[in-house]
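Hi all, long-time lurker, first post. I run a small reading group and we've been trying to get comfortable going from sequence to structure in the token notation. Rather than ask abstract questions, I figured I'd post a concrete chain and ask someone more experienced to write out its structure so we can walk through it together at our next meeting. Sequence below, copied exactly:
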Amino acid sequence: MANLHAHYFGETQNLVRNTVRRFVDQHIIEHINDWEEANEFPRELYSTAGEAGILGIGHAEEYGGSGGDIFCKVAASEELMRSTSGGLVASLGSIDIGLPPIAKWGSKTLKEKVIPKVISGEKIIALAITEPSGGSDVANIKTRAVKDGDHYIVNGSKTFITSGHRADYYTVAVRTGGDGYGGISLLLIERDTPGFSRGKNLKKTGWWASDTAELFFDDVRVPAENLIGPENSGFIAIMSNFEMERLSLCVMANMTAELALEESLKYVKERSAFGRPIGKFQVTKHKLAEMATALEASKTFTYSLAAAMQEGKSVIKEISMAKNFATQTSDKITYDAVQIFGGMGYMRESKVERLARDNRILSIGGGTYEIMNEVIAKQLGL
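-- Answer (accepted) --
Happy to help. Here is the structure in token form:
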């Protein structure tokens, strides 16, 4: 079958793809089932990924990054997803939501201190926005930071934080001003700061291999020099990162769907019923045709937006549409894949079982399906 999307990936992007594919084959595939069952993967994988230049993709060479454009990130994400573990990909990928605000808005001192260590895999970074009182309502976060001389005193809590349990650095959204989006700032808070604690690793429906935690701040004294960007400008910094995060979730959803489709296409040739392979039944053939059609449409939409973002265009409305479309597509394809597999699709030894449960978070994380529709409606002038 012709690859209609090959023109998006040149020599550099294909080099990235091959590098990440080798990394997954050599360091992940053999162990992923055990890591899933253990609800974690070795911390050393960060440094191994750092040495391979994978964590640095899309980050400035000035601080040890590998450089590369948006399609380098897409290629890397697609190959990491071939591990079949969305949780592992999300945890390794916390660099791409925790680090950009520092890279874009942080002081030179903060950049020099944090970026090289995170890119090398020596340190892990997490983004901490979601709170127990609400996730998608970023403008109304309650964790407060009060200025006290050359420090901020932070009180509050966060929840559902990816890499939250074992991160070393946390990019934390706090309220430094009045109500609403105008009173939010970002602070870098380090792991061992007195008064800062982490809850246990949260157990989830999917993403088992990922590390997810609650965070607690009890009179945590944070140096004022750890402020990321100007005070009360944190909402802008958070929003500026959302387009890339939502693109990443589109890629994860498309790859989840693609892997489920691939597994289904293999299975229908191997599994027989009533004396013939189940792939010979019209109901199965048509189901697979519909799955393939929806996936092709979603990938085409996602790649077109990645190209627009690469050109510097704002795609606030369209990336929200694409995230909803990609996750609807992966919802349907993973559901249908389990149905095609029948009882085996409900067994933990089956890849489609993992893909189906990992998939469920994708329409929630990075802005829920409902919030995406609110964004789209607002952009339509409604």
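A couple of things your group might point at:
The chain has a mean pLDDT of 94.
Residues 106 and 228 are 5 Å apart (CA to CA).
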